Structure formats: structure tokens, C-alpha cells
Amino acid sequence: MSPWTRSCQSLGISHWKKCPWMVSSTFLAQMSPSSWTQQSSASFSSSPLVHTPERSSRKLPGPVQASSQRSQILSSCGCLDTGALSRSPSRPRREAGIRPQAPGRGVPELAEAGGSSSDELRPNGKGLPVDQSSWGQNKPENSLSRQNKSKSEISNMVRSSTITVSDKAHILSMQKFGLRDTIVKSHLIQKEEDYTYIQNFRFFVGTYNVNGQSPKECLRPWLSHDTQAPDVYCVGFQELDLSKEAFFFHDTPKEEEWFKAVSEGLHPDAKYAKVKLIRLVGIMLLLYVKQEHAAYISEVEAETVGTGIMGRMGNKGGVAIRFRFHNTSICVVNSHLAAHTEEYERRNQDYKDICSRMQFCQVDPSLPPLTISKHDVILWLGDLNYRIEDPDVEKVKKLIEEKAFQTLYAYDQLRAQVAAKAVFEGFSEGELTFQPTYKYDTGSDDWDTSEKCRAPAWCDRVLWKGKNITQLSYQSHMALKTSDHKPVSSVFDIGVRVINEELYRKTLEEIVRSLDKMENANIPSVSLSKREFCFQNVKYMHLQVESFTIRNGQVPCQFEFISKPNEESYCKQWLRASPSRGFLLPDSSVEIELELFVNKTTATKLNSGEDKIEDILVLHLDRGKDYFLSVSGNYMPSCFGSPIHTLCYMKEPILDLPLETIRELTLMRLQTEDNGSQLEKPMDIPKELWILVDYLYRNAIQQEDLFQQPGLRSEFDHIRDCLDTGTIDNLSASNHSVAEALLLFLESLPEPVICFSAYRNCLECSGNLTASKQVITTLPACHRNVFTYLMAFLQELLKNSAKNHLDDNILASIFGSLLLRNPAGHQKLEMAEKKKAQEFVHQFLTHPEPLSLLSYSA
């Protein structure tokens, strides 16, 4: 009998059965051309943001004054980036607020307001930055080049503000957003073609999977291969750092190394300003623009989405930067999707997750976040990891040698998935006229000669979506040999909408006059296509969506779901309306989606009956009446979100038990099991936990990358249903899906395996194995048994590390944050706490002891 079997039997689990919107006279006076010249001098020249060293003491010329004042007024409507009208695009000058480039290849920033992330500049992750402490600091004309800067100075430059110079001027002049401004902006968007013209700008888009290497060669053969200097650079990297420290703690020196290499590799015939850098573990995206275009960049936001294990880990996922260039919105996405030839469905899932979860805050905080699709131009680059289906590696290499790329392209997975409309619907890609970019022996142009002998594939791709886009080139760059991938570049001419000042003024005046004719007495009114919504058989982590249409009458209206009296939010935590607020022009309509999703936060109270799928939504019209929507449904109780001791008392599948029994067991205090309860003797560990662990022990003990690759969402649904109904004989899923289900099960526990009461003690004694064991012995029996059982399983995995490539640090990092959770309810542990939690678990993995050393009551 194996040690594993003995440990299972010892735990008793050897088997288990079955506002007013009228335009005021003051506003009209502000829009009057005569007022621009009269008022502009003082307001523009006194701004602390404008940096013009050569003319700092002089009065600015009239046209610039007028344009600036008018830009500030118009920006109060959210209509135009301040500074965009202060000069003609055909006659660029040095942009206000941009630090001049010093000798050498240094790259200036658009702005440096301090802070390392956009969240630090936006209270609660929303709205606009309020820290103005460094806005007025002028940059010296003779600033040092990047090569001469210290490491700390480079770090500060890398982590610059998301707000550009022009954004800051916009913030200073911005009035409170109101219905009138929203109406003006909406009409301006509708009439955009009346006051803009198309001007082409050259974009360089590049992607490079660097395989964890540091830069060893000049990047100019990749970044500067064209004779014409690009106007905009979008440069993406994947696998920037493959170390465990980067994966678990997100810090890496490679960020600065590659940033410096890119900055030095930009086209020598132009000077560039760095707009933004964003990184998620090894996925990094850099955005640069020519200095003369910098003042026309606004509304810069950057976000990340991890699609690794549990939908969070950043070893796979995407990063994106969105911005407005003149009057065109652009979103650049860099993604690294799931690996391995057979995993194209997970790649598809990763793509869909990035699209659905990537959201950007808008300048107007009353508007819902922007998604990737809500942009005029989308540029998508990265290691998409789609492979060539033909299993005959030699055949693939022969076709490459013959340069029969179109024949080979017929076997390309991405082509097949796009044709099936599974991913990248509406996107375009240029013809592949270069050989596959993966996989090479590092330092050479030879195909992979390792034991795995990976088949060549076009993993690294560039796609685009939008109008007025012309691809000029699409190629790989064989000269670079640092990685097992070759970098790829694509150069585009992109038509950007540029504002004609005179036509803009005329259009704005027409809108203002038409609004002035509207009667203030009109009351907005809408009709709803549906007011009652019933969600049937809601399951844990399974999204259900119901939709309805709001159709507006003859008066512009602003709508919003509002909170009921004595409630903090407009709906319960398991519900969300998208969009939850908005604006409607006369005779227009909008579709609202009600999304119901039960997760670890809401499942326990639904299991216990403390909460039900019942809610009333209040849809409020500004200056109008309220509409009431009824939401109802039924929740299917699940082992996910149930306490450990509750599941130990459930000897039958949870869906076979009466709702009242589930309620009583879920509400039962943890201490009850040790206080002479009249209930039957509980099982030592939850049967659901045993099913998952036993499945992995039998099928995945040697599985490579276990607990590091995500499973399929459809398979999680199947696993959850098998656990909740007791149909374990039907359990059939990939090892990665079962492993992820185990992690999600542990994450969903309302009281973690190591109880909240023991959290601080565990952190304090991490590094002291004897003291740590003592803490474990103080846990309630069911929690102690689960900890013991999991440690035994993880030790078995480590015995097979030669095959599964797991080590004690990886497992300690993954399970440390699940077994030890901060009782304050923080989403993420502080870095110091995270490391101590890892160290606590690490002790038990590296010092395996007989199970008897950790006593428990069977």
C-alpha cells in the first residue's frame, strides 16, 4: 500500500458514494470670438504647464492666445484636447511642456507627475488625477541624456504619469460635467466629418518575444529599418523575464534594460517622446511619438488583463494603451496567449477574456469605461501562439525552404480560427511573406534542435481594425538572434482625423443655436422594452445575461441607475447593468445588458439563504421620472463558496440536500463541531476536495506546468456540476482544468484553510518550523486535516518534479496566498505579507514529516 493510499485511508476517504441643459448667455459670451482675444493673454501665459524657454518673458502672439483660450473653453465640454488648435499641423513648433532632447539618444517624457501606476493617480481607480504638485516644474534645456542618468532617475522616468501635457491643461480648465456639455459633445461627435479632415501618419508596430533574455544587440535593424522615420512607435515584448520573482512579485530589472534598448534603437532622423510604458509580468508595451506630435496626444490610459491560472496570473494575458491622437481614438494591445499546439481553444478564450475585461476610464467620470472595441483604430500585436497544424515537422520545414508560404498558411491555426469567426472578427492581417518566427536555437537562424524539436510557427503577429489604414510592410527581422523568436514589424499609414479650426467653430455655433431654441419646460421620457427579468438556475461562476432597450422620446436625456434609500449601490453585488448610465439624443435608443454573476464574494450568502436572487433596479432620468425594474431568479447551491466544516457535514451531494439543511449547515458556527453537536460525526475533509486532489494524484502527478496553466471555462462548469451533483464517474476534464478548479475551490472558501484568527501568528512564526507546526495544531480539526492533506499532496508532486517541472517555491507562492488570507479582506496581500505567507507554506514542503506529527481527530 502506497503512502498516499495510507494517508487517504487515515482521513476516512477511501471511498465515497454517490440638470438644466439650456445654454446660458455666459456660455455664449465665452464662445464669442471677441472674448478669446480679450481674455487669452493672462490665462494662457500664467499657466504653469506651458514651457517655452526661448520666449518665456514675452507676450504670446494673438492667434496663439486666441486658440489657447478657445481650446480651454471647448475642453470644458469634453470636446477637444487643449493645445490641439494652437498651431497648424503643417507648421509644427516645439511643443509646450516637452523636455527638449539632450545630445545622445535620450527619450523625453510627455509628463512626469510621479507615481508608478494609473491607480495612484486616480482615487479609487476612477476619475482624474488630483496631485498637481509637480505640474509647474519646468524642465531644463540641457537635461541629461538617458545614458548618463542614474538607475533611480531612469526608474522615475519609466513610471511616468498617464496624463500628458495637454491633458493637464484640460484638467485645469475643465468645468463640472453636466447635461448641457454632454449634449454639445454628442452633437459634435455626430457632426465630426463636418469639421475634420483626414491626414496620414506613419505608425511602426513591432512585437518581440525575447525569451527572458537581456538585450545583447542593437535593435535598429528592427526598429529603424525604414528610410522614413515613423510618427508613432508601438513596441511590444513578451517573456521579458521568465524568473519566478517576476512571475510572483512582478519586479524585474529587464524592464529598464529593454526600455533603454528601444529608446536607443528608435529612428535616428527624428526625436521622440515616450507617452507610456505598461507591463504585466513579462508582457510590456511602449508608446512613443515624434516630439512635434506630442501636444496632440490626449486621454492616455493603460490597463492590463491577466489570463493565466485562475484568470489572474500575468504569465499570459494582455496589456493595452489607449489614447486620442488629434480627433481619432486609438487602442494598442499587446498580448501573449496560451502556448502549445493543441491549445487553440484556450488561446481563443484568452483573446475573448482580454476583450471583455480590458476597460479604460473616461475623462468624464459619469461615462462608462471604454472597451477595446470602442476605438476608431485598434492595433493588436504580440505572441498570439497560434501554430501550424500539420504534424509533419519535416514537411513544414521543406515548405519554408521552398518559400511556399501561402501553401503553409493554409495550415495556420489563426487563419482557421478567424475564418470560423472564433477570434479577431473584423480584424485584418497582411500577407505572410516571411518565414515562421518560432522556434529557433538562440543565437542562430537554425530551427529548434532541442529534445522537443518544436515545429516552426507564425506565433508573432500584427493585426488591425478600423478605417483609413494602409499597411506598407509586414516582415520579420532575421538579423536579431537574441531569442528563440524573431521580431516582427508592420508599418502603417493611418488616416487620423485632424480638426479644421474654422469649420469646428461654425459647427459648434450651430449646435449652440439649436440648443438655445429648445424649451426648458420639456420633460424627458423614455420607453423600456422590458421591466421584469427572471434568471433561472443560476450557477456559481456562470454568467447569465438579460437585455432590454431604452428608447428616448423628443427631449435629450441623461439616464442612470441609482441607489435605493439606505443602500450603497444601485444593485446587489451579483448583478451589474452595462452601461449603468448614459445619454440619449432625441429618438435614439440604447441596449442595456443585465449581467448576473455569482462569485466567491456572493456565493456563501446565497447558499445560506441570507441572500436571494431578488432585486429592484431604479432607472432615473435627469429632470424626469424613475422607472422600476424587477429582477428575480433561483440560485443552485454549490460546494464553491461553502465553508469547510459545512461540507464535512454534507455526506450527500449539496444539490441532493433540502435547502433548509443547506441553510442550517452553512450558518452553523465553526466551533459547533467541537462542542458536542447532536449532528452525525463529520467527514475529516470535504469529499469535494478529495475528488479533485485524488483526480490530480491519479492523472496529473507528472503533468508539466500544473497549477501554472489555466483550464477551459466550459470544463470548469462541468467539474462544478459533477461535484455539486455527485456524478463523479462522469468527471472528464483536462488536468489543467481540474487543477484550476482546485485553486478556485480553495479561493472560494469563506474561511480559508488557515483560519483568519491564526493569520497573524502564521506570519510571525514563518521561518520557525516548530512554531509553525504549533499554530497548525490550534486550527479546528477539519481545517487542520485539509492543511495536512494538501501538504501531503504537494509533497507528492515535488517527488515528480523532474517530470512536472514544479519546485517548492512555485507551489509555496501559489498556495500561500490561498491558504493564508488577510482577515481585513484585502484583494491582494502586501508584498511583505505575501512573501511571509509563501515562506510559511514553504517550510512544510521542504521539511516533509510523517502525518502523525500534525495530530488531528479522525
TrEMBL record:
Alphabetized UniProt keyword annotations: Cytoplasmic vesicle, Endosome, Hydrolase, Lipid metabolism, Membrane
One of the Pfam families matching this protein, by short name: RhoGAP
Protein name, per record: phosphoinositide 5-phosphatase
Entry EC number(s): 3.1.3.36
SMART domains: IPPc, RhoGAP
Gene3D superfamilies: Endonuclease/exonuclease/phosphatase, Immunoglobulins, Rho GTPase activation protein
Domain of life: Eukaryota
PROSITE patterns documented for this protein: RHOGAP (PS50238)
First and last residue of the signal peptide: none
EC supergroup of this enzyme: hydrolase
Cell compartments where the protein resides: Cytoplasmic vesicle, Phagosome membrane; Early endosome membrane
BP-aspect Gene Ontology terms: phosphatidylinositol dephosphorylation; signal transduction
Originating species: Ovis ammon polii
Compositional bias per record (Polar residues), positions renumbered to this chain: 65-75, 131-157
Chain intervals with Low complexity compositional bias: 38-47
Lineage, opening ranks: Eukaryota, Metazoa, Chordata, Craniata, Vertebrata
Gene Ontology, cellular component aspect: cytosol; early endosome membrane; phagocytic vesicle membrane
Region (Disordered): 38-157
Family: Belongs to the inositol 1,4,5-trisphosphate 5-phosphatase type II family.
InterPro entries on file: Endo/exonu/phosph_ase_sf (IPR036691), Ig-like_fold (IPR013783), IP5 (IPR046985), IPPc (IPR000300), OCRL-1_2_ASH (IPR048869), OCRL1/INPP5B_INPP5c (IPR037793), Rho_GTPase_activation_prot (IPR008936), RhoGAP_dom (IPR000198)
